[in-house]
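Exercise (ungraded).
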Amino acid sequence: MSQTFEPQTEYKKLHPSSPLFILVDAIIKIIFPLVITYFLGGTSYLKEGWVIGIIAFLASIGTVAQYWFYHYWLEPDRIVIKSGIIFKSLRQVPYERIQNINIKNTILHQLFKVATVQIESASGSKPEAVIRVISLTQVKELQNAIKQKTKDISVTKDVTSDHLDSNQHASLPLYQITKADITRYGCIHWQALVPLAAVFGFAMQTDSMRERMTNFILSMVFYIRNYTALEGKLLNGIILVILLLIAAWLVSMVIAHLKLHGFTLTKNEHKLHAEMGLLTRITADIPIKRIQLIRIRESFMHRLFKRQTLTMETAGGVTQQTGIVMRWLVPLAKPEDISPLINKIEAKINLADMNWQNLSVKAWRRLFKKTSALNLCIIAILCLSWTTQAAWLLLTVPLWYGYARTWARHAAYAFDDHMIAYRSGVLFRNTSIVKINKIQTIRLLESPFDRRNHHGSLVVDTAGSNIALHHISIPYLEKDQLLKLHNQLTHQVSQSTFVW
Amino acid sequence: MKIFERRALAPEYRQLLRLLTWLWTGLITIPVFILTYFAIDLVWYSALVITFCTWLLLALLLKAYVMAWYKKYQYALSKEGLIINKGVFWQQLIIIPRNRVQHTDITTGPLERRYNLAKLVVHTAGTRDASVTLNGLPEKTAADLRKELIISIQDDSV
């Protein structure tokens, strides 16, 4: 191999406890699902226990080999990672291309004084590198190397007044979650319902499991009857559901506390540093200029507790399934605290002074027509294929009307020289904010219905955006309003430079 | 920096589209013949007539749509960037600012080569518009556009 395949500085190995962590990961990803299917008897070909034994054995050999062949070294401008047993790979990631560094630290990690480090660049849906695991001193070294490099760049690139005064409030926490807010977060998000629903959905897969599930639920109902001394399956069933929900609610709060314990967001010159977790500690470093989109979320539950959530999107497309993610800027805060916080992160974004403009006055009528048409279709299909009783659903027409009215009243957009923002939603209200220099393309859309009403919509695309979530896509705009907005945006975007 | 006003796709692309319309609808009529001749057991000539009529009808409908699509399809290069305007019923106007172009590809298929056409794919860092394709360009225009869009990339300092 050529010279470049050899380290220019001394190379570093993983921590000796590393195979253990790789194995744990493999168990969670491969062996655990296998064991579950084995016990549930879902698939017959796994009836023999030794199949799992062999897989486990191969996995443990694999982990040791992986550990043996994994090296990395820090060059002045990049990190180089060499890995692979049969298919060798050499990966070079320049420090300035690194989007985020996320560090995970579970109890097991703490026992060995190590951490899992994930390096994310802007490309792909997988992290650029997951170093599993290195000692805490090595982590510090890595962080320092990256910090040093990015500092050099920021100093040479822009010596602004902004840079000078940011030193004064360096590493002062921007936001710290309170215990009460974590509890509220648990109440709002009901995270325990997700695994519950998953178990339920899984149990409905085969007939035998469905039967077992029904029997289990029935026995629970009878069990409850012993305590309540009430007759009637329905009544006891309702009590069971209520009990389950209370349990899920309590568990949700516990999960929230485990996950968000001590969430702190710190601004350190041009970087954000977030930390959270009780048993599993996750640390994330995000350069502020890498933030592509900021989103304020507010569900009806949020409104009940008078709180809002602030999340962000960075250019890397890593999801919960492919790696460690940090999407929060603020898990929960009072609505009046949100805009000062955004302002502190991005000095040029000032939501408080924004001039929000409504969509077309006809917007509610068009939305009402659209939802009516859709709902009528659904009701018609239900009536024809199931029961004519479905026609009773027509009584919900006032709800559709109310929905359209509320939606149109709340939906609005705002823009100035530095950003564009759009808010919408009824039960789940979202506000998306994108800086002008993060806009990639601008799209105007016009459906046949738009043409009739002289309307149009405007969609803005950013890097690393999640297609399923709220983004800047403003419908029902009057034509002249739309064209004005479009011309201005196009001009501004072409004037500004996109930096990853 | 080169600029040009809105222009239509190459006239050769219209011919290509017409050819493709006949070809594709022709393929679709095969199951129609199978259905009428083998499944419903019609006499061979009535089966053929039905198939032919379906073909004609489908092809004319599709041709009308494709021609409308071709007529609506316009592109331009402004000071700001590449502009594409397309769509028959649902119309859209996309702007790819010059300084947001990451890289460009030119691809040509065998049929396109016969007509001296090329397809330009413009890649951005975005998500939904990660790549925007511009079909049916004359080869020279595609090369020019590509050159123009690449020059502007070198202007900006990332």
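Further reading is listed at the end of the chapter. For now, observe: Residues 154-158 of chain B have pLDDT under 50 and may be disordered. The first strand of chain B starts at residue 4 and ends at 8.
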